[in-house]
Amino acid sequence: MNRILILCGLGALLAGLTGCDTFSDGLSGTLTNVPPQTRRFEVEQKQVFYAAQLALKRMDFVLTRTALAQGVVEGHSNLRDTGVFGASRQYSARIRLTGVPGESTEVAILLHEQSEADIKGAATNRALREHGLYDSFFEHLVRVLQEPTAKP
């Protein structure tokens, strides 16, 4: 019994030492510590914030959380059938914007893949180090930023 309590305490300690600046969620994300993909744009944060939302929507993602003041845009894809009975896959995106007023904005995105393998209910949630969706997001973001904006 004491060993179980010690192991739980060590797990909590490890989770606490990783800090608040990581994108991970859950113990598996904390231990892998996958860094987000980042790019810098010479555009103000507010414009990039709205462009990131539109870029995700054009990728058929559903927005789940947006907060301009915190520079946060989050969304998820639809469930995708993998062709195997009972198996499905879904992607979620977490975008953090860090802006220097009047100068530039850094865009950091981290993708997670949630998959369910079969009827047994074995599901996984893992951060993706590399995936084509990263390139796709940044291509959509560049296109949206290059579009002419409507003047009020």
Describe the structure.
It is elongated and about 50 Å long. A hairpin with a 3-residue loop joins strand 5 (88-100) and strand 6. The protein has helices spanning 2-17, 26-32, 45-58, 132-146, and strands at 37-41, 62-67, 72-76, 80-81, 88-100, 104-116, 123-127. Strands 1, 2, 3, 4, 5, 6 and 7 form a seven-stranded antiparallel sheet that branches. It has four helices and seven strands, in the order ααβαββββββα. It is an alpha+beta fold and 152 residues long. It has one domain: TATA-Binding Protein (2-Layer Sandwich).
Key structural traits:
34% helix, alpha+beta, TATA-Binding Protein, 32% strand, 152 residues, 7-stranded antiparallel β-sheet
Give the biggest sheet: 7 strands, antiparallel
Total number of distinct structural domains: 1
Q: Give the averaged pLDDT, no decimals.
A: 79
The N- and C-terminal alpha carbons lie at a distance of 67 Å
CATH class: Alpha Beta
Structural class: alpha+beta
CATH 4th-level superfamily:
Kinase associated domain 1, KA1
Proportion of residues in extended strands:
25-35%
CATH fold category name: TATA-Binding Protein
Number of helices: 4
Query: Order of helices and strands, N to C?
Result: HHEHEEEEEEH
Radius of gyration: 18 Å
Please estimate the helix content. Answer: 25-40%
CATH architecture: 2-Layer Sandwich
Task: Outline the low-pLDDT stretches.
Answer: 1-7, 13-31
